[in-house]
Design goal:
By secondary structure, the protein is an alpha/beta fold. The chain is 39% helix and 17% strand. The strands form two sheets. Strands 1-4-5-8-9-10-11-12 form an eight-stranded parallel barrel, surrounded by eight helices. It has a two-stranded antiparallel sheet with strand order 6-7. The radius of gyration is 20 Å and the shape is globular. The N and C termini lie far apart (44 Å).
Amino acid sequence: MNVPVRLRRLRQTPSLRALFNETSLSPRHLVQPYFVVAGKGVRQEVRPGLGLWQVSADMLGEEVGALEKGGAGGVMLFGVPEHKRDDGQGLAQQLAPLEAALGEVKARAPELPTFVDVCLCAYTTHGHCGLVKDGVVVNDESVRVLSDMAVLLGKWGADFVCPSDMMDGRVAALRRALDEQGLQRVSILSYAIKMASAFYGPFREAAHSAPSFGDRRSYQMPAGNRREARRELLLDVQEGADALLVKPAMSNLDLLRDAREATDVPLFAYQVSGEYAMLRAAADAGLLDFDRALDESLVSIRRAGADVIVSYAARAYARR
């Protein structure tokens, strides 16, 4: 055969394949989520094999030590409060598990970056991401409470506050509130593109955050709107976001690529609980090799443009 260009020549051995590898994946690219609960001695996987861990602050200390040793990129913390209320008051008491957790992380793994969720869904009885008045999720009043939450988390040592609520104008409001309190060092990782998705089910079980009425489509994005997604992320950049996040990752790889081409801001993607659970369920049914499928999915997210991936696999990767 007269084949002047034979690309297989570059794939013949493991060393050649490694030499010409275009997209790398290592623990430093991965951030592990944890659901922080009150009490002591708590470390339980919400459902076996799905990687959603509820931990108390003391147990989180042990976890982050292993993550730092294994070279993980960081931890993302979600609070699971003991008491819920719908008026946006009493935040310090509701956030107490996160205050203890941040102290533990900084004591045990001071160089490990901490990302802390800023949202109201787990803190309210109705499970919506903002305050509700007359059956409607209100925007500006919610943003004021979210700003108060961000300031508290920043004072307690969070490296990044991560608004996931999808209220309009919240990035600018958080930046202003943080700066006014002398917290210029605290960065904002904005959930810039967050779809109203069916893939959040296991997360809502772990965070106790499922909405008690209606849905979140009035503030989370419609999955079909590619141009609107671009507008959302560019607005967040203008408002002062230090990094952007796309969620879910695997069902929005095109939007991830759009985001990478639209901005040079660091880009995160969240391989959400339902996406991870699908791989686990398929493997448990004998339909695929879980480790290979997981590697392939994470590489595809990196290849699409993500600098960092929030994934329930980070814990396992750091322990390899």
